[in-house]
Specification:
Blueprint (H helix, E strand, L loop, with lengths): L1 H17 L5 H11 L4 E4 L6 H7 L6 E4 L3 H15 L4 E3 L4 H10 L1
Length: 105
């Protein structure tokens, strides 16, 4: 039994070590592209800067820079209503999130 556990443990290590490292920001971008998102409305800030770094490395969707987080949510909502597809808003945490809530309410 112990030899089986050792073999499976070493096999798991091989699988993990052979996989390339991927960041959370890269996962977010991949998901948006897999969902065929065409536009993301947003305002960059602290917590989402890594996502913004990845946005500018891809060409699957266009980022629309807004002047306020509330505007990002309103734009995403309007886009969704006009097209019948998903509207995406990207804002940072803290005040960015509370400003975005105003657009949702």
């Amino acid at each position: 039994m112990d030899s089986q556990n050792n073999n499976s443990t070493s096999a798991n290590k091989d699988v993990v070590s052979s996989n390339p490292t991927i960041t959370g920001a890269e996962i977010v971008i991949r998901c948006l592209n897999e969902e065929k998102i065409k536009f993301v409305f947003g305002y960059p800030g602290g917590a989402v800067l890594h996502i913004y770094d990845e946005i500018y490395k891809q060409n699957g969707f266009k980022h629309i820079l807004v002047r306020h987080e509330q505007a990002a949510v309103h734009a995403a909502d309007a886009y969704s209503r006009a097209t019948g597809t998903v509207g995406v808003a990207l804002v940072t945490s803290g005040p960015g999130a509370t400003n975005a809530v105003t657009g949702i309410a």
